[in-house]
Amino acid sequence: xxxxxxxxxxxxxxxxxxxxxxxxxxxxxxxxxxxxxxxxxxxxxxxxxxxxxxxxxxxxxxxxxxxxxxxxxxxxxxxxxxxxxxxxxxxxxxxxxxxxxxxxxxxxxxxxxxxxxxxxxxxxxxxxxxxxxxxxxxxxxxxxxxxxxxxxxxxxxxxxxxx
Length: 163
Prior knowledge:
Number of helices: 0
Strand content: 25-35%
Order of helices and strands: EEEEEEEEEEE
CATH topology of the largest domain: Immunoglobulin-like
Distance between the termini: 52 Å
Number of domains: 2
Shape: elongated
């Protein structure tokens, strides 16, 4: 059976197929795809190795580098019938070391004050601003959201005053 893959997001990492035919090993060298050009890959797998219904995913060498949908979410397993003889898929994005985003798109974290005094609590707290990645070179306007985790609402496992 022939598996074809198109992905517009290319990098130097090798692409593998994994599934119910290789115990879901995400970096099995026997199932490394051949690169046709910068965006197209393929692999032909002997039918004797495949079950009648093939479940599979594409990875770039590990679960920390698995395929994602256009929103950066994990995709469900793909399914194909071995009888079809060929399937073509598209991968929108790739996870990179457990994250779906490229470093240049991460937000900017700035410390506004190391010791902001809160008289009602008679305590000092660090004040942060989390800014969009393009904040300093964009004309976009952003709403402001003020958050505090006085009751550990966002992370119940965090210690007091840690957020």
